[in-house]
Amino acid sequence: MLLTGGRVGPPSNKSFSDGDEVLGLYGKSAEMAVSPLHGNLYTQTYRGRMFHGYATNANQQQAALPVYSTTAPPFILYNPRSSAVNCILVHYVAGWVSGTNVEGNIMLGVITNAPAAIATGSAITAFTNGTVLNGNLGGGMKSKVRFGSATIVAATQFLPLGLSNMVLDTAKSTSVNFFYNFEGSVIVPPGVAVFSCASVASVALYNQRLSWYEFPI
Fold first, then answer.
1. pLDDT one-digit tens code per residue, 4-58
2. E strands along the chain, which residues?
C-alpha cells in the first residue's frame, strides 16, 4: 500500500527552486490540499511555453474576418513540419472595432497539408510574420511556430467556434464578447495551420488574439 504524508498548515509563501524536496500540504481534517494556487496554465506560462499571437502590425490590426473561402487570411497560425513541437490551442479572442457586420459565425479554418517550406504550388504560397508575445512577459523562449498573414489554397475543413457576429455597428450599444476556450481540445501538430474566418463576408473590423502553448512531440 502506498502511503503519502505531509504537514498541516497554510500554503507556503515561498517560491521553491527546481530540485527542492518538499512535503505535501494537508488541511485541518488531514485532507490533502489539492486546490490550485495558480491558474491551470501557470506552469506552462512560467516555463515560457505560452504564446500569444495578436493584431498589431498594419496588415493585421483591425482586420476584417475573411469569408471561409478566403485565400488570403490575415490571421493564421502555421506549425512548420520541422518545429518538433505540438501547438496546443488555448484561447481565441476577438473584439469588434468598427464597421457593420453581416450576420454569421466565426470559424477556424484548418489546413492539414501545410508545407515544410513556403513555396509556389503548396498549400501556403506566401507568409508574412506577425507579432508573437511570450506569456512570460519579458522572458521565456522564442516560439517555434509561425504566426501572421498568408496566401493559401482555400481550405475545406472548418471548426465552428459557436461565436455569432451579429449585425453590429456604431449605433448599437450592446456589449459583445467573442471568446473561445479550447481547453486543450485542439492540437496543431507540425504540418498543420489554422486561421480565423467567418461563414459570410463582412467589412467589420476586429482586433484578434490567439493563444497557445508549445510542447515537444
1. 678 898 878 888 888 998 888 888 888 887 767 788 899 899 999 999 998 755 5
2. 6-8, 24-26, 50-54, 63-64, 76-79, 85-98, 104-111, 124-129, 131-134, 146-152, 157-165, 178-181, 187-188, 192-198, 205-216
How many angstroms separate the CA atoms of 16 and 14, rounded?
A: 6
The C-alpha torsion from 196 through 198 and 203 to 209, rounded to 10°, is: -30
18 contacts: CB under 8 Å, gap ≥ 6:
none
- Which residues, in sequence order, are CB contacts of 92 under 8 Å at separation 6+? 108, 161, 178, 179, 180, 182, 196, 208, 209, 210, 211
Closest to 92 (Cα-Cα) out of 192, 189, 179? 179
Interior angle at CA 80, CA 78 and CA 85, nearest 5: 100
Beta bridge partners of 6: 24
Rounded Cα–Cα distance for residues 94 and 40 (Å): 22
pTM for the whole structure: 0.82
Rg (CA), the chain: 21
Q: Would residue 206 be called left, alpha or beta, if left means φ above 0 and alpha means ψ between -120 and 50 degrees?
A: beta
C-alpha torsion sign, points 109, 113, 117, 121: negative
